[in-house]
């Protein structure tokens, strides 16, 4: 039991076990794009810099579009990478060319 009365995950020695999370590159790209956008908006609000209206309205959709492209690429890489090799080269498996053909 922890000091708050909740049971802890029973790892070795009573330590908490942290589960691994899948890396999401789209979240990283979106976060890295939103930080400078937020900084520019803060600078504009304080009068430090002047942002054109067109730039303000295109930065966020561009960041979202870039993150979507990265997400699609990551999903494609995961999907093709999880299939793995089908077998040794030249091994067609059951029902492949050359089997049952007369």
From TrEMBL:
<keyword id="KW-1133">Transmembrane helix</keyword>
<feature type="transmembrane region" description="Helical">
    <location>
        <begin position="57"/>
        <end position="77"/>
    </location>
</feature>
<feature type="region of interest" description="Disordered">
    <location>
        <begin position="80"/>
        <end position="102"/>
    </location>
</feature>
<protein>
    <recommendedName>
        <fullName>Integral membrane protein</fullName>
    </recommendedName>
</protein>
<keyword id="KW-0472">Membrane</keyword>
<keyword id="KW-0812">Transmembrane</keyword>
<feature type="compositionally biased region" description="Gly residues">
    <location>
        <begin position="90"/>
        <end position="102"/>
    </location>
</feature>
<feature type="transmembrane region" description="Helical">
    <location>
        <begin position="26"/>
        <end position="45"/>
    </location>
</feature>
């Amino acid at each position: 039991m922890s000091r708050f009365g909740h049971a802890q995950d029973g790892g070795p020695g009573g330590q908490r076990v942290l589960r691994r999370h899948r890396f999401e590159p789209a979240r990283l790209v979106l976060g890295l794009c939103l930080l400078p956008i937020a900084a520019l908006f803060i600078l504009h609000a304080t009068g430090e810099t002047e942002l054109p209206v067109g730039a303000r309205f295109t930065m966020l959709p561009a960041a979202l579009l870039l993150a979507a492209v990265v997400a699609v690429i990551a999903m494609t890489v995961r999907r093709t990478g999880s299939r793995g090799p089908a077998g040794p080269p030249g091994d067609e498996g059951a029902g492949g060319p050359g089997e049952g053909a007369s």
